[in-house]
From TrEMBL:
<dbReference type="Pfam" id="PF06067">
    <property type="entry name" value="DUF932"/>
</dbReference>
<dbReference type="InterPro" id="IPR026325">
    <property type="entry name" value="DUF932"/>
</dbReference>
<protein>
    <recommendedName>
        <fullName>DUF932 domain-containing protein</fullName>
    </recommendedName>
</protein>
């Protein structure tokens, strides 16, 4: 669920009831200082960042229902009022069973296909929110840093958009991304990862290619075969919060490495 208006508490609850859980899982230590996620959401809203998308992990153990991992994506009021092509987002992660640290990271929402990127830790380090002590300071520090980081991130996007990739370089990017999603015994069709799904993505710059590969890895429909069984398969959409983040951050890291290789060459060519 992704919208251009902030999600109400009722909408948040419908999508992720765990945001409103009022006590930790019973297996959590007594030393654990519980923080309801909705409290932090309300703190963040006071600084003009509003929730626009929420995900909640599916649990196999019903005993963990209501305590599972969840992710809330926030967008700044300015970007809701005047949506840019790429909006910086604040990402809040938490769970109530200690399986996920309470943390805030940075992301990007690309309006072309309504999907969100997650910035690699090498570019913007996640802020851990302490369950004991200086919580308010932790939240405020993370918000201030992401807000001040917005111009730098836009500059990074501009750099990626200025770097053109050859057919061979695009294929190398796609091959490097395969292990982020697929195990070694799964052989995939690299061309499927490079298929754009809209006219706006028919470009060869680094940023567009990263987004095309991201969409194909996350949303699925990549064909391949299992080298151990010989059976063919078609990938399905990633629904795991953890895997989604892992793929996104990995793609950003690969793009950073390509940028580091290409930029000196571009400077000499200029």
């Amino acid at each position: 669920m992704s919208v251009l208006h902030p999600l109400t508490d009722n909408e948040l609850y419908d999508e992720a009831p765990s945001l409103f859980t009022e006590e930790p899982h019973y297996e959590v230590s007594d030393k654990y200082h519980f923080i309801p996620t909705i409290e932090v959401i309300n703190e963040i809203k006071q600084h003009n960042w509003y929730p626009v998308k929420v995900q909640e992990a599916t649990v196999r153990d019903l005993d963990k229902e209501g305590y599972q991992r969840h992710l809330v994506r926030f967008r700044h009021f300015d970007d809701l009022l005047n949506p840019p092509q790429n909006a910086v987002e604040l990402l809040l992660f938490n769970s109530h069973d200690r399986t996920t640290a309470f943390s805030i990271s940075a992301g990007i929402y690309r309006f072309v296909y309504a999907n969100g990127l997650v910035i690699a830790n090498s570019v913007f380090e996640s802020y851990k929110i302490k369950h004991i002590g200086e919580r308010d300071n932790d939240v405020l520090s993370a918000i201030n840093n992401i807000t001040s980081f917005k111009p730098q991130l836009q500059e990074k996007i501009n750099t990626f958009e200025s770097i053109q990739l050859s057919a061979g370089e695009k294929e190398a990017f796609a091959k490097a991304s395969v292990p982020l999603r697929f195990e070694n015994h799964l052989q995939v069709d690299i061309n499927d990862l490079l298929v754009p799904h809209r006219m706006e993505d028919e470009h060869n710059d680094l940023y567009t290619i990263m987004n095309v590969i991201q969409e194909n890895l996350i949303r699925g429909n990549v064909s391949g075969y299992n080298k151990e069984t010989g059976r063919r398969f078609t990938s399905k959409e990633i629904t795991s919060i953890g895997k989604d983040v892992e793929v996104n951050q990995g793609l950003w890291d690969i793009a950073e490495r390509i940028s580091a290789i290409k930029q000196p060459y571009l400077a000499r060519a200029a």
